[in-house]
Amino acid sequence: MAGFLDVLLRGLILVLTGIALGGAAWLRLVVRAEPHVKPDGPTVLALTTIGAAAVGVAAAQTAVVMVSFGAVGTTHGDVLATEFFTTTFALTATARVVWALGLALLARRMAEGAAGRVAWTALFVGATALVASSAIVSHAVARVEYRWLLLALDGAHQLAAAVWVGGLAHLALYAAWRRRHASLMGTRPELDVHAAAPVVRRFSTLAFRAMATLVLAGAALTWMYVGEPSALVGTAYGVMVLSKVTLLLAALALAYANMRAVHVASGEPDTRLFRFAEAELGLGITILFAAASLTSLPPSVDVTIDRATVGEVAARFVPAPPRLTSPPIDELIRTADPLMERQISRKPVERAWSEYNHHWAGFFVVTMGALAILERLGLRVARHWPLVFFGMATFLFVRNDPRAWPLGPAGFWESFSLPDVLQHRTFVLLIVAFGVFEWMVRTERLAVRPWAYVFPLLCAVGGGLLLTHSHAMFNLKDEFLAEVTHAPLGILGAFAGWGRWLELRLPEAGRWPAWTWRVCFTAVGLLLLFYREG
Amino acid sequence: MIALLGLATLVALMVAPPAAAHSLLLGATPAPDAVIATSPLEVRLRFNNRIEKSLSRVRLVDERGAVAAAVIDARAAAPAELVIARVPPLAAGAWRVEWQVFSTDGHVVSGSYGFRLTP
């Protein structure tokens, strides 16, 4: 679990440092906040957000250090703190914690009153240094060859990503502030939004440049870490890079729509732009978590023995009859590794058990997808499709942990003391809760806003989590092939979430968001239905 | 739709092992599954990235579970990606090398492999 937690924390740090630097760039290059002037409402909001993000960076970075220290100490109790805290990683991470706290203090002070030129410069330089120092705790610093070149490329890549994603966060905050301000002033929101046109135009230019830098540096890093095209498909690292590229292309499509709205159409931003920016921000955050996942994987160029071929990967996506017969539970318990022991290999009966679970879960999801499509086509009774969640939750509850109650020897209460079982049952409860919420929204038992937003957000988060969860340990190739469908599942999850978000937030976008999430949803079911491990 | 959250995450957590495989063992002496005639003086492990040797550990375990500690000299003039551990004289039989390394970018990774020492 430490590996998963480490990736989540590193993803969170990428997002928060992005918000800090994106905010500093937003204030300096987009809003063009003036030194020696009392900050106005949007500037105070941006500075407060930067401060909060920096505090979050300090907390998350501290947690990363503690997770690492704990991982070392768990196995080797004799490890000395002085040994750990004199490593490059711990020194850099500790410096980042202090640096982030300093940045938070500075941003807070600047939000309270007029700040001079030195303070504004320090804010921008400080946020830039915070992001750039991420490279010193990344793959680049540990590489044997081309270390300095990789550090420079990684730094440029992360700076560009931070300006883009963090800037989008501040654009969304800015839009929200202006709407609220217009509402308080009693003016028509659209008129006030039009007043933001120069700001939005400047951000569009900044974001475009950041994107260009991000893509160029990313392409160079891909060339150095992946090596050859076949590794993009045949290794976990390569597949994660492809996932990032796919999400980035979708974000670029939204960015292009935004740019057209700003530069080609009327020249003034409208609601459409801000809604697309929200979805673009969501995809950007998902990309950052996928990037964090990359830090836990060996670069493709190093995986020379356990690579899968393109054919082997493609074979995992070829539809085959689902497994509708489960192996006997007795055989599984007798043959497979005990639940409490560390898993060192997967036996055929375990694979069969897992495939059966995936296929039935796929059946449930496809059913829901089909009903959601029918609902869209006008079949009113199909709006009850979230009730299918209950069937799926029951199935997963019974099948997830075959060695625990009700199938296995571990009793009901006893099984809760097992971390994996507790984790799985928590997710089952979440599925039930989400099903209840969605059903109540669709049957108008709950207000659409804000409750309807819970689902797309959690769906997108789920997609992101799936991309961050990894990965092969004891047999790179076999485990990679078993998990290779997780990447498209994660991408489809993100697309479905943000499609549904746009359907709710931007009805004038037409039918495509509604169909996007329904198609993605059904595709997830089909992927699960045809999932195979061998 | 939210099935994507619960189900996908759940499926991932069910299927995937709990640790990352950031540092990759590229080569080892004695080699995995090797059969050797004399007790090795040292175990050499070469990884794909720089290792913080002072926080890395190597040990050898025999068939009965008895442990022979191997000592890493963190100050030895060896390349950053090469871990060299001195090994005490080993008895004949099957041995498992268990390693845990701390890479320069802060990831802890462990692994093991076996070899056989013939009488």
Strand content of chain B: 35-45%
Largest sheet of chain A: none
Structural class of chain A: mainly alpha
Count of beta strands of chain A: 0
User: Roughly how many Å is the radius of gyration of chain B?
Assistant: 18 Å
User: Main β-sheet of chain B, in a few words?
Assistant: 8 strands, mixed
Largest interface, C-beta closer than 8 angstroms, per-chain residues: A-B, 94 and 45 residues
Approximate strand percentage of chain A = under 5%
Compressed to H and E, one letter per element, the order of chain B equals HEEEEEEEE
Unreliable spans of chain B are 1-20
> What overall geometry of chain B do the principal axes of the alpha carbons give?
elongated
Spans of chain A of at least 5 consecutive residues whose pLDDT stays below 50 are: 338-342
Structural class of chain B: mainly beta
Total of helices of chain A: 22
Integer-rounded radius of gyration of chain A = 24 Å
Distance between the termini of chain B: 63 Å
Q: Descriptors for this entry?
A:
heterodimer, A: 534 residues, mainly alpha, 22 helices, B: 119 residues, mainly beta, eight-stranded mixed β-sheet, 1 helix, 8 strands, 11% helix, 42% strand, elongated, disordered N terminus
The gist of it:
Chain A has 534 residues and is mainly α. Chain A has helices spanning 2-30, 41-75, 81-84, 88-112, 117-132, 139-142, 147-185, 189-194, 197-226, 229-234, 236-264, 271-294, 310-315, 329-335, 348-376, 388-399, 412-415, 419-442, 448-468, 476-483, 486-505, 512-529.
